[in-house]
Amino acid sequence: AGVLAALNLHVELRCGADAADGPPDVSSAWDGSHWRIICIRLERPASVARGQRVKVRVDAALAGQIPSYTFSAALVSDDGTLTSLGAPLEYPVGSLTVNDAMDQMSF
After folding, report:
1. Which of 26, 41, 59, 91 could bond to 70 as cystine, CB 3.0-4.6 Å?
2. What is the rounded (10 degree) CA torsion for 97, 69, 73, 12?
């Protein structure tokens, strides 16, 4: 058992209709990537059990000068029921770099 207070995310881009199961074309986890690994703090911490899953939905708005992303997160119960982890979170507005987020969190 533990507490989930934030999501640490990296981005992987796969291009093409058959690319979903293949290796990414671009990944923020690669050395030298200019894409940031981000930390999004949840609206409220949630108690979690070992092996429990989190489902994250991402919506992208790419038409403007600065792309924006909205993340909705939920805990998944054994029977598939989703329990929201709070209001949708915006990137880049509601995110921090992992280092900045860790500096601001208390455990």
Report:
1. 59
2. -70
Residue with tokens 């949708």: 88
Residue in the block written with tokens 């038409």: 63
> Distance between CA 45 and CA 48 in Å, rounded?
9
Burial class (CB in 10 A: 0-12, 13-18, 19+), 71: buried
- Rounded-to-integer distance, Cα 9 and Cα 11, Å: 7
Give the span between the Cα atoms of 17 and 91, in whole angstroms.
26
- CB 28, CB 13: distance < 8 Å: no
- Whole-model pTM above 0.85? no
Residue 27: strand pairing partners: 12
